[in-house]
Design goal:
497 residues; alpha+beta; Transferase(Phosphotransferase), domain 1; six-stranded mixed sheet; three-stranded antiparallel sheet; Kinase-like_dom_sf; nucleus; nucleotide-binding; protein kinase activity
Length: 497
């Protein structure tokens, strides 16, 4: 969030003298921008009466103020915050509220004027994800539903509305102006039609069904035009993942590129249909292998478990330390860890992802979301989200890998239902460590490796967030543990006594 009392700790980049920007943004110049926004909105949002025009001007002024605030900040982080999703609703009293969700964030280094844009070579991908509904039942301010795309440059493109009974939400997610020397690269999330995805799944036939959750259903499919097997997530309109979460997931995965993050191939947003298309992960989720293992199926061995833990941590490290601004995953759990060939892990399902604190901010205040058993206690109690919230969830997943127990299991006795609560007293007695190990490992694990892995897990699930390690330290520790493989020819089989 951009705040007036934020004090930058970095200077402006070369050729980006912020004092010049302030000089350009005199009251007359700002008023011209307001008028420009007004003209743009009037072309797409027919209104009637003086009251309607007055409300439209209030919208334009609020929108211009957001641009001015972002443009006059010297912060490298804040310049990357572009206006991603502009939501305006006409309330029954005739007022229109402007809501720009804080989690709709993407990199943008553009100056505030369209005329300047051609002179500036951005070093970062720019996002345009700006589409929203405008509704009103108020007779004095009649606003029809339209589709408008607005970015920081005030470039507006209209998508013509066909005569359709469904109001269509258009999600146009693009990275553009990625310039590096002479070459220009463009990454675009592919837009698939609903018919294409229906054909890929044989009309969502039951034999293509892979799994189901609070968000909807997942199907395996084959898309001919890209010659690839895919996983298609069809969101339930009444499910837990709404339009905003859908947009966040598309936005995050369009920006992110890492071996331990699932690759988004495209999406579909036709009428009320919301579908996401991912690379297909043939070995399913970690939850399947830990908690839903079919009879006769070989359980994961110790070496594979530690390799999975290290890979998950690396994916989290990319989100926390390499993405700018940083991203807090907020939904790390075994069902969201997908496994590819050779059990290579990838994080998936980014609907709850949130842009992390930047600058002098220590946390992001937000509605508590996540899965019980994985949610950090400090975040659950205060709603203050930090990267340490993800560290706690990672610690829970690591405990699941070690113990084979679920994060929360109502079938267990009351004192054992919550995995962390069950583990806390055992952390204090090294002689009981062997009792914590998954029985399916049948004693085939290195004693030293077990102690080290439990030590990492214990630090990650510390009740006080300040006591938890940063992700880089967790990656280093898990990499070390994973590199010291268990060899049954060398290490004795451990006893659980």
């Amino acid at each position: 969030m951009v705040t007036n009392n934020w004090r930058p700790n970095q200077g402006a980049e070369p050729n980006m003298d912020t004092s010049d920007w302030r000089g350009q943004l005199q009251p007359e110049s700002r008023q011209r921008i307001v008028n420009k926004i007004m003209d743009t909105l009037k072309r797409h949002l027919p209104v009637s009466g003086q009251e309607g025009l007055h409300e439209l001007r209030k919208i334009a002024q609020k929108f211009e103020d957001k641009i001015y605030t972002a443009a006059t900040s010297q912060s490298d982080y804040l310049r990357k915050i572009s206006l991603k999703m502009l939501t305006m609703e006409t309330k029954s009293q005739g007022t229109i509220a402007n809501n720009i969700p804080p989690n709709q964030v993407g990199p943008s280094n553009q100056p505030p004027y369209p005329d300047d844009a051609s002179k500036y070579d951005s070093k970062h991908d720019q996002l345009s994800l700006d589409v929203k509904k405008f509704e009103s039942n108020n007779s004095s301010c009649k606003v029809k539903q339209n589709k408008v795309k607005v970015n920081l440059n005030l470039n507006v493109s209209e998508k013509r509305e066909d005569d359709s009974k469904n109001d269509q939400l258009s999600l146009d997610v693009k990275n553009f102006y990625l310039k590096d020397g002479v070459s220009t690269d463009e990454k675009v999330a592919k837009i698939f039609t609903f018919d294409e995805l229906a054909a890929a799944t044989k009309s969502f036939r039951v034999d293509c069904f892979v799994g189901e959750g609070g968000f909807g259903k997942v199907y395996k499919g084959y898309i001919k035009k890209i010659n690839q097997f895919v996983a298609i997530k069809q969101l339930d309109p009444n499910g837990l993942q709404g339009t905003r979460e859908f947009a966040v997931e598309v936005l995050t995965l369009s920006l992110a590129e890492h071996p331990n993050l699932v690759k988004l191939l495209g999406f579909c947003a036709e009428g009320e249909q919301r579908l996401l298309v991912y690379e297909y992960m043939p070995l399913g989720s970690l939850e399947n292998h830990l908690h839903d293992l079919p009879p006769g199926k070989k359980p994961l061995d110790w070496n594979t478990r530690m390799r999975i833990a290290a890979g998950v941590a690396k994916g989290l490290e990319y989100l926390h330390d390499e993405m700018k601004p940083p991203v807090i995953y907020r939904d790390l759990k075994c069902s969201n860890i997908l496994l590819g060939d050779d059990y290579h892990p990838k994080l998936s399902d980014f609907g709850l992802a949130k842009v992390g604190p930047i600058g002098d901010m220590t946390h992001v205040s937000t509605r508590v979301m996540g899965t019980y058993g994985y949610c950090a206690p400090d975040y659950a109690m205060t709603g203050q989200l930090t990267s340490k919230s993800d560290i706690y969830s990672l610690g829970v997943a690591l405990l699941e890998l070690i113990t084979g127990r679920k994060a929360f299991d109502p079938s267990k006795p009351a004192k054992e239902q919550n995995l962390v609560a069950w583990a806390y007293p055992l952390f204090k007695e090294q002689r009981k460590f062997s009792k914590m190990v998954d029985p399916l490992l049948e004693g085939q694990y290195p004693a030293r490796g077990l102690y080290q892995a439990l030590a990492v897990a214990a630090m990650c699930v510390e009740e006080q967030s300040s006591m938890r390690p940063v992700i880089a330290d967790v990656v280093a520790a898990l990499d070390f543990i994973a590199s010291h493989k268990y060899d049954p020819q060398v290490h004795p089989i451990q006893s659980s006594r």
